[in-house]
Amino acid sequence: MRRVLAILPYVPLPSDTGGTLRTLELVRALASRFELEVFAVHRTGNDAEGFKRWLGGLGVPASRLHLVDLPRVALGETLNSSRAFLRGTPLTYVRFARQGLSDALRKVLTERGPFDIIHFDHLHMAQLLPLARQLNPGAHLVIDEHNVESQVLARMAPLSAPLLRPFLNWQFQRVERLERECVSQADTVLACSDVDAQQLRALGAKHVQVVPNGVKLPDFAPREAMGDDLVFVGSMDWWPNEDAVLRLAREVWPLVSSDLSAGKLLVVGRSPPASVRALENERLVVTGSVPSVAPYLARALATAIPLRAGSGTRLKVLEAAAAGVPVVATRLAVEGLPVVEGQHVLLAESPQEFAAALRRLRQDPDLCSRLAQNARRMAESFAWDGIGAGLGELYLNAPVVRGNGTRPSKSEAH
Asked: Per the database record, which ranges form the Glycosyltransferase subfamily 4-like N-terminal domain (predicted)?
């Protein structure tokens, strides 16, 4: 059985963001097919014990989970962090370039290796790729790019406050340089969509494989009746979501609130900042973190996603589709998904277009039903089980190099 090491920038429990959901489901797929070991950064708020139990239920013993504490402030690493920053490491990536982290990975690779596949989750952890190449030269090295990170910053900068734009442009240049370095060194890069795959090839990735985001279909039973509320789902500590919610509440909701008088605007997601909390009133509810978004989607007329920045594909679109909730969204919000205007979603860019689309849904139950049924069928092709099987097949067939410099035959690889 092939040995796989998954290197994660967090413990993916609680799985309350799109990123942690993807990480958790891909780890599940790897654990069910390979001899898996996990190296994970343990951050404040992570449920390490829950993750250990979850892995145990998949047959991964606690001895194969390697946790590394990485506090935000580490006085003993100040000099090392400063050097990384001066070498060009992007500001928000410096924590993951610390000596303590590379020392911990060195120990795992030395004592537990060699591995056949080393899976780096997010660009942040791909900074450790040269160390893995040095210590485990025969491994097939893979980066899972949840987003094209430089593209996120490129789209954020022009939408931000003028005083913030120089910093974001500076950060973009650093992230793009790091992204080029990492994806060009990887044996395989995973992308969420064909759109992202094309961008990653332009950045120098040699082999890009699309492993899309998915949805847990049993969690989202299609509804029998149309609801009344307008819902936005997303992690509120991600700036593109905050921007979308502020735009929805300030520019779209005032245009349609009287037409949707039986419902409320529900903002569902963890860590809402003060700017979002300040929106609350009797008809605008900010929930914070919730155990499941399914009950909120079940009572929705529609979900509105006026997203203006981001990359990858939106799990919130797939979840709404699985729940049979009509989606009104910008083209960027559905980027990379096989949706057709008027068949699966309604597209809108301006507040007026969003308002007009929502009024159409309120006045046309047949349109709601048609969109919901088509979107559900689309979502069924994104079940995590099938996506996990595809990843397993990819890793079963990935070429690795034996210690003697030879590659195993295909039958030996299996």
From this structure: 17-214
Strand partners, 121: 144
Contact (CB, 8 A) for 379 and 322? yes
Helix 18-33 vs helix 315-322: angle between axes, to the nearest 10 degrees? Answer: 80
Question: 351-363 and 365-380 helices cross at what angle (nearest 10)?
Answer: 100
Output the six-digit token pair for 11: 């413990």
Terminal C-alpha separation, the chain: 7
Strand order of the β-sheet with 188-191 is: 65-69, 35-42, 3-8, 117-121, 140-144, 188-191, 208-210
Report angle CA 203, 191, 96 to the nearest 5 degrees. Answer: 75
Q: What number is the average pLDDT over the span 8-12?
A: 96
Residue 119 token pair? 């899976």
Is the distance from CB of 27 to CB of 12 less than 8 angstroms?
A: yes
- What are 15-27's pLDDT values in tens digits? 988 999 999 999 9
